[in-house]
Amino acid sequence: MSTAETNAAGKPGRKAPAGERVADWADGRLGIYSLAKANMRKIFPDHWSFMLGEVCLYSFLIIILTGVYLTLFFHPSMNEVVYHGSYVPLQGQRMSEAFSSTLHISFDVRGGLLIRQIHHWAALIFLAGMFVHMMRVFFTGAFRKPREINWMFGFLLFFLGMFTGFTGYSLPDDLLSGTGVRFVDGAILSVPVIGTYLSMFVFGGEFPGGDFVARFYSVHILLLPGIMLGLVVAHLILVIYHKHTQYPGPGRTEKNVVGMPLLPVYMAKAGGFFFLVFGAIAAIAAIATINPIWEIGPYRPDQVSTGAQPDWYMGFAEGLIRVMPGWEINIWGHTLVLGVFIPLVIFPLVLFAIAFWPFLEAWATGDKREHHLLDRPRNAPTRTAFGVAWIAAYFVMLVGGGNDLWATHFHLSLNAITWFVRIGFFVVPVLSFIATRRICMGLQRRDREKVLHGRESGIIKRLPHGEFVEVHEPLTQEQLHTLTAHEQPKPLELEPEVDKNGVARKASMGQKMKVRLSKSMYGEDKFVPKATAEEYQEITSGHGHH
């Protein structure tokens, strides 16, 4: 008798169902039972902001699915052909095979135009979701130990996603994307010494060359997506390994997670949310046309598309170059185009400034503990202010990237907009930092008043001796816990100039910088002391509480 016809005790019995036999076979080789037992009941907290990461994941899956369909019909070639397809206005015109095949997908492949639209919109939503998700992680302090590596993985996904989107945007070889590629070629050529070599390598000769579509195609569908897929998998593995962060509340500590199990509750919700995201993107794609290349026409090196704008995530880089003065210097017979090269250097520096913040914050605090409870942004005013200042700088440059459209749509001077962006890049982030930190301090004071005096009810009461007072509703224990559970770090101090043996010690420059940064972030004037239990008892038991 075969083993399939024996029961668990090894005795003859009922034959196991086929699915169970397949599962037993797989478990004997992969150990999936123990793996599933350890992870399928893993607890995940429930909060609407955690769905931002799911939007990114589902958009990425939609991009892959629609991208596979598009590769079946797209020809990544710059060979010149004469168009004889369905779109009458372009019939008889010379164009590249890439542009011709994109027209074929749009007008002759069943569902091709909708898939193109979904693919493009999903890419925009993926990067927008990454941006918002990254800011949620930043403002709540979810990047702290042990999640610094996962923060870097997420940031690299956003960074690589920008270039993946740019290479895909350039593949149709239309006049709009060709203008953007020409813009990038100019930026590459501004690199001292090696700029011309890089340009020849990327384009296979003098711009536009004859190979850049094929090269961008390989990078777009193989290299960058492969790296990003690996980062997504690593990101999810670390989320499961470290356990999910959660917002403070009753019963929630650094050592537990309060929420729902992965299977079946969370998986059911996630599955439904995936189809909601897919449906929303499909609806947007069906209603709002994006990148109508047939209206723009094929790329010609001697033509420029009017009002050419990149997708929003590259507007920051373009804005830097548009508003930078046209500085040039000549050294030993060579011209350095600083008006392009300096923005090319500033672009990654601004992006990576926020990527390295977790390490700077950990260095300034000296905190080496693990953190699984999130911060309320108001309780970390310096971090929140820095994040808002970073976003302000990003969006000021986004205005610079579309300065011509701002000028034409709002009837403004192009020069005035350019000068506003030049000054705003330095002034607006500083003002945003100061305003945000003051707002956070005000919200901390408001929380302190709520804890000590309760919530304003709007009910006015007259006391026997004639005084009018507003009745305050006491907060629940859950609300009191939420408003007082956070920690308030103390700034670091320099060690005494003389040790216990009377030997003089000299603080290093690094230690002085660390203490100065710590005081600027966590000094006494950067926090409003939270209400203590003694203060609460004194006020609630006295006659002054209404």
* CATH topology grouping of the domain at 38-305: Cytochrome Bc1 Complex, Chain C
Q: What is the number of strand segments?
A: 8
Secondary structure category: mainly alpha
User: Proportion of β residues?
Assistant: 5-15%
Report on the structure:
With 546 residues, the chain is mainly alpha-helical. The chain has a domain at 38-305: Cytochrome Bc1 Complex, Chain C. Helix content is 60%, strand content 5%. The chain has 20 helices and eight strands. The chain has helices spanning 18-30, 32-39, 51-71, 97-107, 112-140, 148-170, 175-189, 195-203, 212-242, 262-287, 293-296, 315-323, 338-355, 357-365, 381-401, 403-410, 414-453, 477-484, 509-522, 533-540; strands at 43-44, 80-82, 94-96, 260-261, 329-331, 334-336, 455-462, 468-473. It is globular. The chain starts with 17 loop residues before the first helix and ends in a 6-residue tail after the last helix.
